[in-house]
Design brief:
By secondary structure, this protein is α/β, with parallel strands linked by helices. It contains 17 helices and 18 strands. It is 27% helix and 14% strand. The strands form three sheets. Strands 6, 7, 8, 9, 10, 11, 13, 15 and 16 form a nine-stranded mixed sheet that branches. The chain has a six-stranded mixed sheet with strand order 4-5-3-2-1-12. Strands 14-18-17 form a three-stranded antiparallel sheet. Keywords: Hydrolase, Iron, Manganese, Metal-binding, mRNA processing, Nucleus, Zinc.
Length: 539
């Protein structure tokens, strides 16, 4: 079957689907499935916009609401994960996944589904070490901290995915797995994105959690987005024994979705079960894992570690047996079809009656209620509500009022790295800085194939095969420890940083026209991403 893969669509669903329809007319190619790797922006109304972590001036309604209301229907089954620019209150309603509109399915915080026998997994959000060990405690209305932490990856989701034993065909993450750039045309990547160099050379670009999953799951395909550059790589995995067959992963990072982007290079042919139906299906092993790990659900801000074989936990292996998988199949009468039970849970945007003062509320979605009841799982949002009520009863909880984000970018991610850029030191990859005037890079056209000698066709675009050495393998816990040490060290220089904050916006060293090594004003990468929408309209 043909699978189309898209990067960050930023809510421009009309443009994305029109491009696919144009592809069908011009090339007679019609995908059976569309995958989107985050920053989907399922914004239903003005309240949802307030829950999206972008500066106020970049909050645009876009076109998702038309699909939510039923005015339009996605012409192809669409499966997506969350990124770091989402209506977090909407996606939070579906922690285990669900329909956000007819024919548009969200995988949840982490999830695995099947389509025509093809096993598709994904993890939503981006990695941030300071929130990684916390539970999912956030709920709307968000404040300046929780509006960002709501989309940060948690260790429990990684732990659940690591319990899987059966092969994964396709996996999606929003941010790149750390180290994946060593398996493609790194030279060309750095030529297109020179400001990645320090992170690449220090092996800190990307998510250590995603890298850990890549090494464990070894999927046939792995797709990511986030950095707005197309990049392909091919990773040959090490085998654990002589009997184990070698496995390899084809990695592709997608540029953001644009109306003029040719999807022809982002459509892959995937082997499927010709006898399977055309419905999206639950994955029996994943459901069994959810049931097995249900006792680990945490809705507090307290940091905690997942069970591991270190003498501190009575149980650390939560992988499931064939018998447990069989029980799930019997519970479902061997009918794994995901019910089409989409339900409106919020008022839909009406262009003729704008409601700019609409406030977000914490909603329990009927889809999640039904899913949890069917499989005996904890409804995370219900647990959060209970925790709030219990704390309020003890006089320990006072609801925080949402602070309006200003247009200067206060909703941007605080860097975990040293912010002293006097020597072009490392920046958080999620906050890459660009020239105020746009710099010499065009984010809408950056594309890095694995080798300039290879054609851009995805099936042949992997330049060479490399095996990750042990020294390059990154554990998310190890990376977190080192990052936390770095944060502790930076705490001592907090006063210095506060003193230098008056020098914002941040600047990067660069020679001025007089050759005096002057500095150029730069702005946050995310602002450049959204500003590029205006350029798109003129294409």
């Amino acid at each position: 079957m043909k699978v189309a893969v898209a990067g960050c669509c930023h809510g421009a669903l009309d443009k994305m689907y029109e491009t696919l329809e144009l592809l069908q007319r011009r090339h007679n190619v019609r995908p059976d499935l569309l995958l989107c790797c985050g920053d989907f922006q399922a914004v239903r109304n003005e309240a949802d916009l307030r829950c999206m972590a972008v500066p106020a001036k970049y909050r645009h309604m876009q076109t998702f609401y038309r699909y939510y209301s039923g005015e339009k229907k996605a012409p192809v089954l669409t499966v997506f994960i969350g990124g770091n620019h989402e209506a977090s209150n909407h996606l939070q309603e579906l922690p285990y996944g669900g329909w956000v509109a007819p024919n548009i399915y969200y995988l949840g915080y982490a999830g695995v589904v099947r389509f025509r026998g093809v096993r598709i997994g994904g993890i939503s959000g981006i990695f941030k070490s300071h929130d990684y060990r916390k539970g999912h405690f956030e709920c709307p209305p968000y404040n300046q901290q929780t509006i960002r932490s709501a989309y940060h990856v948690r260790n429990i989701e990684v732990f659940k995915l690591k319990q899987l034993k059966r092969p994964i065909d396709i996996f999606m993450s929003h941010d790149w797995p750390r180290s994946i750039y060593h398996y493609g045309n790194k030279k060309q990547l750095l030529k297109m994105k020179s400001f990645f160099r320090q992170e690449v050379e220090s092996n800190t670009l990307g998510s250590p959690a995603a890298s850990e999953l890549l090494q464990h799951l070894k999927p046939t395909y792995w797709f990511s987005a986030h950095l707005h550059v197309k990049f392909a790589a091919f990773m040959q995995h090490e085998t654990n024994s002589k009997e184990e067959l070698p496995k390899a992963t084809k990695f592709l990072a997608l540029d953001k979705c644009l109306p003029h982007r040719d999807f022809l290079q982002q459509i892959i042919d995937v082997e499927h079960d010709p006898n399977a139906g055309d419905s999206l299906e639950y994955d029996a092993e994943w459901i069994a894992v959810l049931k097995a790990t249900n006792s680990l659900v945490n809705v507090t801000q307290s940091s905690w570690n997942m069970p591991e074989k270190n003498g501190l936990h009575a149980k650390w292996d939560y992988s499931v047996t064939e018998e447990a998988i069989k029980e799930v199949l019997e519970e479902l009468n061997h009918d794994l079809k995901i019910p089409c039970n989409f339900t409106l849970t919020a008022a839909c945007y009406d262009p003729s009656k704008p409601q700019k003062t609409m406030e977000p509320v914490h909603t329990i979605n009927p889809q999640t209620t039904e899913f949890c009841a069917q499989f005996g799982l904890t409804d995370i949002n219900d647990r959060i509500q209970q925790a709030k009520e219990e704390a309020s009863g003890r006089g320990e909880y006072e609801e925080e009022e949402e602070e309006e984000m200003d247009s200067t970018g206060s909703a941007e991610e605080p860097s975990e790295y040293n912010t002293d850029n006097s020597g072009l030191s490392s920046f958080n990859p999620d906050e890459i800085m660009l020239d105020e005037e746009g710099g010499d890079e065009d984010l809408s056209t950056c594309s890095v194939d694995p080798s300039p000698d290879h054609p851009p066709d995805f099936s042949t675009s992997f330049s060479d095969i490399r095996i990750m050495p042990d020294s390059m393998a990154v554990s998310s816990d190890d990376a977190m420890d080192s990052n936390n040490e770095e944060l502790e060290k930076s705490a001592g220089s907090k006063q210095v940083e506060e003193k230098s904050s008056t020098e914002r916006p941040l600047k990067r060293i660069g020679g001025d026209e007089n050759g005096n090594g002057g500095i150029k004003k730069i702005k946050r990468r995310n602002q450049a991403i959204y500003a590029a929408e205006d350029e798109d309209k003129t294409d």
